[in-house]
# Entry
Amino acid sequence: MFLKNLRHIRTTLSFRLTIWYAAIFIFSSLILFALTFYLVSSTIRVYDQKVAQAKISEYALVERADGLPVLIRSIRIEQENNLENGLLIRLADSENRTLTETIPSRWKAADLKKIEESSVPVSEEQWRLPVSNEHGDVLEVFCRRLSDGSILQIGKKSQKPGKLLESFGAIFAGIMIPVVLVGITAGLFLALRALRPIRSLIQTVRCIDGGNLSARVPSAQSGDELDELVQLFNGMLGKIETLVGGMREALDNVAHDLRTPVTRLRSGIETALQSDSGAGVLREALMDGAEESERIVNTLDTLMDISEAEKGIMNLKSESTDIVSLVRDVADLYQYVAEDKGVGLSTELPEALYAQVDSNRIRQVVANLVDNAVKFTPHGGAVVIEATTGETEVAILVRDNGIGIPAQDLPRIFDRLFRGERGRSQRGLGLGLSMVQAVIRAHKGRIEVESNPGKGSTFTVLLPVAAFPPRPAS
# Structure
């Protein structure tokens, strides 16, 4: 069990981020130590060079002012002090034979022998000579030819800086363990803090998986990328909850409204089966069943048409169509329905008007709008169908002075299967306006609506103008 949990922890993002944070912290500490070590070493080396150069200049002045014997005596007098300061000093004649020398404890006779055997430039008055000892230290010896031709060589390699650097390294090695622990702890803290929104998101998804669609990810309001992700995710959850609620409501409406024709169909079949009447009764029952079946099929076909239009795959037979003739046909079709209800139906149309549309689909659109206008206009009201044209669009308006649409229902009247409170008293599934909008969008057009409760509504369909009108018959 422990090994299984360990393997799971190793695969988590928190573990990987902790390792990365700790590695970066430790690596940065190593780089900082190396840089500090290099700067300290460089500073000490430059200091040693300056001390050696100052000493060789001092002795050169003594030789020039008082002569070589006095210089030899001065070197011997200051030998103890030079040894304490780590100065290697050698004075040789013009033939490079040693006259006097001072050798610190870290430099042996073999090292001095390397200096003695080194070549002496003939023309140069001052030069540098790098010499390495058995400890791996490199001593930079400064050499100068004095006024009488003798050679003065001085180098400096302090013991204290070496010990200082060794102590520095030992101290750093001692603090590496707490540095590693701090790095891992800080890495774990930063990883857990950075991934807090992700863990909240995972917890919310689990709640949603359990059926709680109202769950939301808490936002820290930090304004960073993760907080933006949380807000986008919460917005997506809100839309999903709305869609799921709409689907449930739509299914409820379908189940409720299809129950009536299905019940009638079943009732007719059962009545016919139990009846001892003749073929006439059975024929009438079959006709009733066929009518109810046709109503169900039409509803399902309408749902399929809406789905195809919304997906952009509706098969349209677009052609240059005379909108005026199309509107007049629809008006003539509904004239009798309007008269039976006591509603006046009239048109205001130009002589000719063309648009590039599928004439059957647009006829279906206008018929749906006129049917709704007549249905929701009380006795004595009026419905008017207009058509106008602009430079790029043709407009078809269906205006009535009926009951109007409540303001709270306007944003949803084109939703599939939506029926407002006033519409529930009328027969239908609420597919008319959603079908209208789907067909209009499939034609690259748009539909607009204005309505005031108690004063009526105006639906405006805007369609692209035809590329050219049909040629007259010759």
